[in-house]
Amino acid sequence: MIGLPAYLVLGAFVFSIGLFGVLTRRNAVGILLGIELMLNAVNINFVAFARFNGDLTGLVFTLFTIAITVAEVAVGLAIVIAIFRVRRTVEADRLDLLRG
Amino acid sequence: MTLETVGFAVVATVLLASSLAVVLTPNLFHAVLYLAAALVATGLIFLLLESPFLFAVQLLLYAGGVVTIVVFAIMLTERLVGTRITQTSRHLVNGAIVAAAVFVGIIGFLIQAPAVSPRPGQTADTTAAIGRLLVGPFAVTFELLGVLLVVALLGALHFARSEE
Fold this sequence. Notes:
- The structure holds 2 protein chains of 2 kinds.
- Chain A contains 3 helices and no strands.
- By secondary structure, chain A is mainly alpha-helical.
- The longest helix of chain A is centred in the last third of the chain and has 31 residues, at 57-87.
- The termini of chain A are far apart.
- Chain B is mostly helical.
């Protein structure tokens, strides 16, 4: 029988991997992929807690998280495309218009 | 070794391997495909936790929708032929240190946490129960989510439309 800690450790692993991707990727789309991984890890935790506590609220919250993530990806990629139109690059290091 | 243990080990290995590939592969297009694998593996984790409805939602919205949008974005911003699609990473050591520190912090919390109760038996059909929750206590949130999706799609259209 797999216990709750196994799922939480798995979630922690995926979250850390996603954080690593966000910190190290140069391409804006690559950074978005890392954020996806982190949100996914949170969903694993939600579903695991919901299952082991016998409380369905976690599942409903996961549904909301998934829907909001989809909206976030749509807006984020639209911004990436708009930036690409203006700057001809999506490298995060070169998008430094607001740097002081 | 029950069937569940074997299933969890296999799915967890696939999930971790494809997650690592997402952040490490130099080819951005391959990274998206690995992300699709990681998302499907997460869906299988939901299935192991006896939430078949969330498994279906994960496949349809994430693996189906998000991956498709990201592939389109890559096609619009990168030349698929040639070398531009390769991406480099920076500050690999610093990123690894921060990520490892966050991981250790989470594990520290888990060790301090009180022992959890064993998994309770599955009570009823979770899909029907989720549906009842969505139109009952969470009805307002559910409607707000619909508004958010419309606003997000209109915003995305506004950002991405061509200047004419």
